[in-house]
C-alpha cells in the first residue's frame, strides 16, 4: 500500500449547510517520510456542529501494538485546523475514526481462531482483540465507541477468494479494518454558530463487512449511522432560484438572494452541474442540471438549486467542432465557462493553478455565450491581471446588429451593462456556466424591482423572468 485516501460525499441538498471544510494529513511511514502509513482527515461544520473524519493506516504485525498507539498519538497531535471552532481532531463535536488499524487477536492460535469463525462463536475472540483491550487501558482511546463485531475477521485472505491465508506465513485472521466514533462531552465552549454545545446522539444502524469483494487480502467494512442534533443551523446563506425548465436561451436566468450575514467576495462564482454523468466527456443533448453558488470565503458551495431541465436545441456546428477537436480536447477540458459581473476583477492570482476540470461539462447551446475553445484562446494572454489582459465584451445575443453594445473591437472593451460577459481566464477554478444574471444597478447600487423593467440587450424584449431583480446583487464587488 503506497498511500491513504479519504473521499467524502454528501447529498446535494445538504451542501448549503456544510461549511468550514478543511483537510490535513500526517505521514508516519519511514519516520514520517513515507505516506504508506499515517492518517488523512476531513473536518467540516454540518448544520452548526463540528464533525471530523479520520482515516488511518497503522503499523502491521502482532507485536506492533505500542507502535500503533504511538502513531495514533502522533496523528492526533500534528493535525491542526484553522479557526476557533475546533483546532484539534478531538476538539470536534463528533469524530469518526476508521481504516486499516491493523490490530490483531492475541493469545489464541490459528486453529482456535478459525474454529471460532467456522462455528460462528465470534464472541470468544472479542476479549483478545487488541483494540478492545486497548480501549480499557489506553487513555488516548477514552470515549471511543464501536459496534459489535458480528462479522468474521476481515484479514487476511488469499486474493481473489474468500479463503483465509494459505501461504507459508499462514497469518491469523484478525479484525484489522474498523470504524469507531467519539462524541465530545457537553460544554467546552460555544459552537461555530455561537450556541452552547450540546451532546450529540449517535445511533449505529449497521456495521458489516462485504465478503463479495475479492480484489484485496482485506474485506471492506461499512457502517451506517443516524445523528441526532440538539439544534440545526439550516438557513442557507444564499438561495438560488431558476425556472423548472429552460427551453429558450432567454430563460437561462438565475436569481439569488443572500443573507445579511453572508460575506460576499468578488471571487465567488456560480456553477452549472449535470445531475448524472458516467464519464469525463462533455454531455450532449438535454438533461437535468443543478446550479450551485461557490463562496470563495467558505471554499465550498453554499447555495444550490433543485434539479431542473435544460431542453435547448444543441448547435450542430458546435457539436461537429467539438467532435473533430480530437487530441486537443483531451489536452484541455472545455467544460467550464466563467461569468464575471461588469468591472469585476479577474480571478485571484492565488487561485491561478491550472486544473483540468473533473466535472461534467455543458453542450453548446445556441444563444448562450460559451467559453471559446482552447484553439481560439491560444493567442490571448494568460496573465490574470486585468491591466495586461483586455478582453471584448460579449452579449448573450450574437446577432448581426452592428450597433450592438455587446461587441467591440478586439482588445477594447465595450460599455458595460447588466448582461455583459467576459471570456474566462484560463486559470479559473470550478464550473462557471453561460448564464445571464440579473444584477444590481451598476449606477445606484439598487436592485431591479418588480415594478421596473430591465433593459434588454440589442432591442430584445425582456422575458417575464427578467422583470424581477435579484436581492443581494451580482458576483462583482
TrEMBL record:
The protein's name in its UniProt record: Inositol polyphosphate-5-phosphatase J
Bias (Low complexity): 315-328, 381-392, 401-412
Pro residues composition bias: residue spans: 413-426
PANTHER family the record matches: INOSITOL 5-PHOSPHATASE, PHOSPHATIDYLINOSITOL 4,5-BISPHOSPHATE 5-PHOSPHATASE A
Renumbered residue ranges of the record's region Disordered: 315-477
Similarity section: Belongs to the inositol 1,4,5-trisphosphate 5-phosphatase type II family.
Phylogenetic lineage: Eukaryota, Metazoa, Chordata, Craniata, Vertebrata
GO biological process, alphabetically ordered: phosphatidylinositol dephosphorylation
Residue ranges of domain Inositol polyphosphate-related phosphatase in the record: 1-233
Gene (UniProt): INPP5J
GO molecular function: phosphatase activity
Amino acid at each position: 500500500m503506497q498511500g491513504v485516501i479519504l473521499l467524502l460525499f454528501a447529498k446535494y441538498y445538504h451542501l448549503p449547510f456544510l461549511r468550514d471544510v478543511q483537510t490535513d494529513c500526517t505521514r508516519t511511514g519511514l519516520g514520517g517520510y513515507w505516506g504508506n502509513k499515517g492518517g488523512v482527515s476531513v473536518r467540516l461544520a454540518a448544520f452548526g456542529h463540528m464533525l471530523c473524519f479520520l482515516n488511518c493506516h497503522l503499523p502491521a504485525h502482532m507485536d506492533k501494538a505500542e507502535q500503533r498507539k504511538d502513531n495514533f498519538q502522533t496523528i492526533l497531535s500534528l493535525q491542526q485546523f484553522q479557526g476557533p471552532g475546533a483546532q484539534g481532531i478531538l476538539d470536534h463535536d463528533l469524530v469518526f475514526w476508521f481504516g486499516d488499524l491493523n490490530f490483531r487477536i492475541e493469545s489464541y492460535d490459528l486453529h482456535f481462531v478459525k474454529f471460532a469463525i467456522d462455528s460462528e462463536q465470534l464472541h470468544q475472540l472479542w476479549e483478545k482483540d487488541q483494540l478492545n483491550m486497548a480501549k480499557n487501558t489506553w487513555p488516548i482511546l477514552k470515549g471511543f465507541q464501536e459496534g459489535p463485531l458480528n462479522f468474521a475477521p476481515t484479514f487476511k485472505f488469499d486474493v481473489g477468494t474468500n479463503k483465509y491465508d494459505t501461504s507459508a506465513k499462514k497469518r491469523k485472521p484478525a479484525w484489522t479494518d474498523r470504524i469507531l466514533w467519539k462524541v465530545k462531552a457537553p460544554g467546552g465552549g460555544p459552537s461555530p454558530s455561537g450556541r452552547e454545545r450540546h451532546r450529540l446522539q449517535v445511533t449505529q444502524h449497521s456495521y458489516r463487512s462485504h465478503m463479495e469483494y475479492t480484489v484485496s487480502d482485506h474485506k471492506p467494512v461499512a457502517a451506517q449511522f443516524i445523528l441526532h442534533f440538539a439544534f440545526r443551523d439550516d438557513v442557507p446563506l444564499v438561495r438560488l432560484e431558476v425556472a423548472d425548465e429552460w427551453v429558450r436561451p432567454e430563460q437561462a436566468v438565475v436569481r439569488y438572494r443572500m443573507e445579511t450575514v453572508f460575506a460576499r467576495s468578488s471571487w465567488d462564482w456560480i456553477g452549472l452541474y449535470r445531475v448524472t454523468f458516467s464519464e469525463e466527456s462533455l454531455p450532449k443533448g438535454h438533461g437535468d442540471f443543478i446550479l450551485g453558488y461557490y463562496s470563495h470565503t467558505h471554499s465550498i458551495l453554499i447555495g444550490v438549486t433543485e434539479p431542473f431541465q435544460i431542453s435547448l436545441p444543441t448547435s450542430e456546428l458546435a457539436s461537429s467542432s467539438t467532435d473533430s477537436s480530437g487530441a486537443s480536447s483531451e489536452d484541455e477540458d472545455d467544460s467550464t465557462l466563467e461569468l464575471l459581473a461588469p468591472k469585476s476583477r479577474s480571478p485571484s492570482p492565488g487561485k491561478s493553478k491550472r486544473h483540468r476540470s473533473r466535472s461534467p461539462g455543458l453542450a453548446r447551446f445556441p444563444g448562450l455565450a460559451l467559453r471559446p475553445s482552447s484553439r481560439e484562446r491560444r493567442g490571448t494572454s494568460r496573465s490574470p491581471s486585468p491591466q495586461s489582459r483586455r478582453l471584448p465584451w460579449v452579449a448573450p445575443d450574437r446577432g448581426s446588429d452592428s450597433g450592438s453594445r455587446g461587441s467591440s473591437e478586439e482588445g477594447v472593451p465595450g460599455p458595460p451593462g447588466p448582461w455583459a460577459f467576459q471570456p474566462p481566464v484560463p486559470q479559473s477554478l470550478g464550473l462557471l456556466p453561460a448564464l445571464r444574471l440579473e444584477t444590481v444597478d451598476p449606477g445606484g447600487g439598487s436592485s431591479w424591482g418588480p415594478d421596473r423593467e430591465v433593459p434588454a440587450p440589442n432591442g430584445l424584449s425582456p422575458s417575464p423572468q427578467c422583470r424581477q431583480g435579484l436581492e443581494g446583487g451580482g458576483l462583482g464587488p
